[in-house]
Structures are given as structure tokens and as C-alpha cells.
């Protein structure tokens, strides 16, 4: 019997608030909440520290200062702001992008003015990542291709990275490395300058979601069934695996936090979870408020003091964590 199967059988009998390694899972009610409206959202984005939020309905995109609890400017409307499904902020908060999968537009966060728009042509964008300064965009396509856009010069490079759909892409802070997961079952770390592959690994099934730390030394990937792996990309090896007996876990958002010691994730089932990277243990779990029949956690963030979630209902909630139990 394999060690993976033994771990799974062990976890089946674990109590709901006990991790597979035997440690207690911290949970607590939200410490505060703020609603960004009452409409169902098609996309959201939080800055890494949750100081700003982007919320998109089917007809407009609004950017909020969460500390002032006010919009920065009038909501963006018009063709480019309709049916937005992908959105994100640069780490330095200076820029954000929105996309309806057929085009992507970059904006100045301070003014709300458009910096540039790029059309996908005959391609359909599956996911988009932005560098820390907002000077690099990577668009991942259904065809398995990826485009790298230098937003300052307008230069575009195209690479054939995967054989099938690229379902998720993450980018290093400097924009030099992209981490992608595909329906061809592979995760790949590749250079955005020439498309060369530095690391690749085959998972059991279709890869649905990936995450990359700022230095491209640590990655995470989850497939459609039960592979949820942390990779030491610097040494090109598997580091740990999420300890869970549940199949079909899905992540809508994720972020390495606390000096890459934790992975913060959001899911389509109202859950926000915190995992310890070293051993894959679940160390904290929170349940967002449900205001509709199906509420998803679309964005997550951490400001060094609290964790944050933004749901498809447009609700921003702040969550405490236990420093002792989440070491």
C-alpha cells in the first residue's frame, strides 16, 4: 500500500477540526466586513495587503480604497468593462488589468485611466498574470500558447508552452519567470524572455491552478483530482503535499504569505484556507458569509496582521489567525 493511500485512509477518520498530521485547525468568525455593493460579481481582485479592491459586475468595474471605504473614482463602464472575468493588481498597486478573455486592458490605479489594450485575436485567454511593477503581462491561452507583453514598450512575444489549455498562470515579481498549469497535466516554470523551460513536472490529471512566490523559487499546483503539490523550484524537487482526504478540491485564488511559510487560498465553496508549506498541513480555515445560493471566495490577501477574503457577493471580510497554532 502506497504512503499516499495510507495518508488518505488515515485522514478519512480524522475529526473535522483536526489536520491529517494531528494538529488542530484554527478557525474564528470574521473580525470585520464591508460590502462593495449588492450585485453579483463576475470578477474581483485585491491588492496583496487588501488596501484596495477591484469589483466587476457584468456592466462596470469599480476600484475601492478599502481603508477609506470609498471608490477611488467613477466606475469604469463601456465595452472594455463589460463581461469582465479576469482581473488583477500589480504588487506595487500602481496598475491593474481587466479582461473579458478576448481583450485585456491595463489601467493606472491612481487615476483610472487606460494605459493600453491588447486583443487576443482568435485566441481565448484562460488566465492572466501581472508583474510587481505592472510592466509585464502574461496571457495564457486555451491553445496552450502564452503571450508575454511588455506594457511599457508594447513588445509582444508568443511561446508554445503546453500542448493543451493553459488553465492557470503565475508570474515572478520581476516578470522574468512564469509558472503555468495545463490540461496536458504538466506544470512548467519558463523564461518570459525566450520561453525556455527551467522546470516541468507531470501531475496525475489536468492542472487547474498554480501559484508562484515572488522569487520563483517556490511553486504550488493542484490538479482536478487529488494532486496538490508544493515544489522547491530552486532545487527542482517536490517539497510537500497538501494533507487532505478530500478529492476535487478547487482553488479560485491563492497567495504565498508570511515569508513563504504559508499558502492562503480561496475556494468556490465559501472557504478560505491556510496551509503550512513545509508539510502541507491545513492550519486555519474560515467560512465566508453566504448571501446567495452559491458564494465563492474569489480573492484573498494578507496585510501582516489579518487575512482577507472577497466573495462573489462583493463582501470583503477580515479574519484573525492564531500565531501560535499557525507557526
From TrEMBL:
Signal sequence, start to end: 1-23
Key words of the record: Repeat, Signal, WD repeat
PROSITE patterns reported for this sequence: PROKAR_LIPOPROTEIN (PS51257), WD_REPEATS_2 (PS50082), WD_REPEATS_REGION (PS50294)
Pfam families noted in UniProt: WD40 (PF00400)
UniProt-listed Gene3D superfamilies: YVTN repeat-like/Quinoprotein amine dehydrogenase
InterPro entries for this protein: Quinoprotein_ADH-like_sf (IPR011047), WD40/YVTN_repeat-like_dom_sf (IPR015943), WD40_rpt (IPR001680), WDR55/POC1 (IPR050505)
Ranges occupied by WD repeats: 159-200
PANTHER family xrefs: POC1 CENTRIOLAR PROTEIN HOMOLOG (PTHR44019:SF8), WD REPEAT-CONTAINING PROTEIN 55 (PTHR44019)
Protein name: WD40 repeat domain-containing protein
Organism expressing this protein natively: Pseudoalteromonas gelatinilytica
